Structure formats: C-alpha cells, structure tokens
Amino acid sequence: MLAGRHVLLIVSGSVAAYKALELARLLRKQGARVTPLLTAGGARFVTSHALQAICGEAVMDDLWSLAQEAAAGHIRLARAPDVVVVAPASADLLARMATGLTDDLAAAVLLATQKPVLVAPAMNPTMWGHPATEANVASLRARGIRIIGPASGAMAEPEDGPGRLVEPSALLAAVAALFADGPLKGRHVLVTSGPTHEPLDPVRYIANRSSGRQGHAIAGALGALGARVTLVSGPVAISTPPGVTLVAVETAAQMLAAVEAALPADAAVCAAAVADFRPAVAVSGKIKKIPGQPPAPITLALNPDILATLSRHAARPRLVVGFAAETSNVIANARQKLERKGCDWVVANDVSGDVMGGLENTVHLVSAAGVEDWPRLPKAEVAARLADRIAQALA
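-> structure tokens emitted (395 positions)
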C-alpha cells in the first residue's frame, strides 16, 4: 500500500527523534518516498546528515532559506506529499498546530497542507497530561488530525507513564492504514479491549481473566475494512493489530479518560472487561501479613461506567456497541444491559467455560430489533462478522 506513496516526515524536538530514522528506513523499505523536514528542536537530537542519508533526499529545515524556498517552497511541501507524518511531535509543536502559528517551516507546512496528517506525540508524562496539551490534542482531533499514541513506559528523565513515542513499526502500520480501501474507509472506530488492573498496593491489584483476544481481533477486523481504529487496551500479552492505534492503560479511570480523549468517533465497541470495582484506597506501601492477625478488610468503590458514559456523551458515536460477559441468564441480562446503558447493541456471551483467554466464542447480538444467535466460532471470525455488521450500520 505504500509503494509509490510520498511521505513528508516532520521531526520535532524530542529525545525520541532517533526513532524517526528507523521510521524513515521502514517507509523506504516499503517503497515510499520520504521527504524529511527537521525543526530546530529536532536538530538538537538527530542530525540532518543522518536524515538525508536514510531518506535519500535533502533535509528541509528553514522557512527563510531562499535556496529551499526556490527549490520546494513551503506551499509545495504542503501539497506534494500523500501524507504528512509528524514523529515525534513535541508539546510545543502540538500547541503551535492547535493555534495556527507559522513561525517556522514545519508549522507553516502544517497550516498550509490539506493532506492527511498523522501525529505521534512524545513528551514527559506531566506535559502530556497537562490541561493545555489535552485541549490542544482535542482541538487537533476535532479537525481530523490523526493522533497515534503516546505509549506508556519508561521515559528518559527517568520517569514512567504515558508520553513515549510509539514504536516505528506501529507508526508504519498506521501510515499504511491511511491508504487501505474498504467499506469503513474514512470512518473512525473506537475499541476497548483487555482487562483493567485496579491497584491494592504497589505490588497487588484486582483484575480478571480477560486476554484481550476478542477486542484486539475486532480492532484488527475493523482496520482491515479501512477504518481508522483507536484501540484503548488494558494490560495484555498479545500484539497490536497492524494499522491500529494503541492507547495502553491500566485502570478503569485511565481507560475512560483515554476513550473520551479519542472522541469523536463514528462507532465505539466496548469489548474490554472493565473491573466494576476498585479498592477505595490504594495504599502506598506493600500490605504486610501480620502473623496471628486476620487480614485488614478491603473497602471497594464503584468504577466509572465507560459504556454508559459513551452512550450518553455529548460527542456520542453514531453506533455504540457493548459486551456482556455473563455466567447465567445470558440473553435476559444482555437485554437489561442494553436498556440500562443506553447503547445500540450488546454482544452477549457466556464466560462460564473457557471463553476468557480461549480462542473461540459463542455470542448473541442483542439489539432493539431482537436477538441474533451466532454459532461457536473462532474469535477472529466473530470479529469479522461484527465488523461487517458495523460497516452495514454506518453505510
């Protein structure tokens, strides 16, 4: 899908800029032409010589260069590529994009382009979580800018949390997905998957047996139909489907925040097994066993209801699909959930056997129109059927 495509790669100021070199290599390996644009901040972390060597093209870096403006010009740079990729995107560049500033070549090109723009943020977790950055990202998403990541993990500071640039392989898949054809091309679908982990103390948590296989399969099936898919997942041990944008979370509260940050969307599939409860207090030190004394009681608090929140959200997707994992009265409980949550469909399944963590599933699609009973199928086939039904509903 990338053979013959022209990618404008903008590299801004972040220690993660070294990953842009690998992204450029992967893009060229797939047959894409890569034109590099390096900001002043990006040049603090990678050299123009390295970018030029890997991309095979001169590096664009100066809005006021007569030579560069004569050779390409910021307007031609904005119009020539098939897609503009900003990786990494610093907090500063996100802010200038959101406000429409044009004080350097990157900002001017981003304001002038009418081509798809894919942005991969990278910054300190505190900067990523700041209300100013959240507002800037929400503004960019509302304008159709595609945001991938950031991932969570160890940072350079050293700190830990959301803010890592997603890996080059995931960026490559996201770029390729922009050119995928199918009935869901141009649609944005939000999928939740996996369990949530609710901390008791620094080493223990409340969780469930969800593997994330069904939710991840659904995300992959939707992407195969051409959708732009944002996958918000709790901790799992499976890989992210190609072309899917992963937002990794741990707790229910983090999942709700990530889901709201990903809006607007045309459809949402809430396949995650979100913990209903969390410890009311997560202690800062490990809970110790004291010989001869009974364990201290654990008080639980209700977690936010992500499906109900989405179903009643001001930016509610056109189609909201929930999942009901039941051990008895599957259809009756699913019908009650459909009415209680306010969603459009509920995919109900009996998890009393080997479904959680297994490779197959038997589901019932419950809606206001009635109940469809599907046979026992591999989870990939369940995902494909559901993706087809979503495509029909959004047509």
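The two ends are 24 Å apart (CA to CA).
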